[in-house]
């Protein structure tokens, strides 16, 4: 089964796939290119107390230049809501542990885990985790290879023949 389709810039940086100019142009035409906004406004459904965090995170994502666009505003909002719910569930788990209430620890622990998974999924979508950033980073283009003495010798031999 083939892997996910990679952008043309990643293919060229890897240097593992050789495409003709026509294939490159076709792939470039098929790729979605979103304009980079100056700022991303918070969604209307986001609570007021999270809008400051939203603006700060959106600004960091835009400064990191990892392809964030206005379409990502709902994902950023969901991330912040899930993070807030996770911290609330963690507080309840801690209180239940202090009270030695096993049933409440189990219930809130399950809720905490669910919120963590939501938070982690949104973070991965936006490149906020280390592993997701590693997938987003383009490899540097290779410089012109240094002259290989063996190849120089072989080319000279071919020219003399």
Can you put this structure into words, describing what you see?
- The protein starts with 7 loop residues before the first helix and ends with a helix.
- The longest helix has 27 residues, at 73-99.
- It has two domains: 1-33, no CATH class; 39-138.
- It has 161 residues and is an all-alpha fold.
- The model has no long low-confidence stretch (mean pLDDT 81).
- The protein is 65% helix and 0% strand.
- α3 (48-64) packs across α4.
Structure summarized in a few sentences:
The chain has 161 residues and is mainly alpha-helical.
Topology:
Elements: H1 8-14, H2 21-30, H3 48-64, H4 73-99, H5 102-126, H6 130-136, H7 149-160
Helix pairs in contact: 3-4, 4-5
Q: Which class of secondary structure composition applies to the elements?
A: mainly alpha
N- and C-termini, Cα separation:
47 Å
What kind of sheet is the major sheet? none
Overall 3D geometry? elongated
How many β-strands, per DSSP?
A: 0
Q: Number of helical runs?
A: 7
Key attributes of the depicted protein:
mainly alpha, 2 domains, 161 residues, 7 helices
């Amino acid at each position: 089964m083939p892997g996910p389709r990679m952008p043309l810039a990643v293919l060229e940086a890897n240097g593992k796939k050789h495409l003709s100019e026509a294939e490159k142009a076709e792939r470039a035409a098929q790729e979605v290119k979103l304009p980079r906004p100056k700022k991303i406004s918070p969604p209307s459904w986001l609570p007021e107390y999270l809008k400051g965090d939203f603006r700060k995170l959106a600004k960091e994502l835009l400064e990191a230049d990892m392809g964030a666009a206005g379409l990502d505003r709902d994902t950023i909002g969901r991330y912040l809501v899930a993070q807030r719910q996770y911290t609330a569930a963690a507080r309840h788990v801690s209180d239940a542990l202090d009270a030695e209430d096993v049933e409440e620890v189990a219930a809130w622990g399950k809720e905490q885990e669910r919120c963590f998974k939501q938070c982690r999924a949104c973070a991965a979508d936006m490149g906020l985790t280390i592993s997701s950033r590693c997938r987003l980073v383009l490899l540097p283009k290779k410089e012109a290879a240094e002259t290989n003495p063996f190849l120089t010798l072989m080319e000279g031999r071919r020219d003399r023949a």
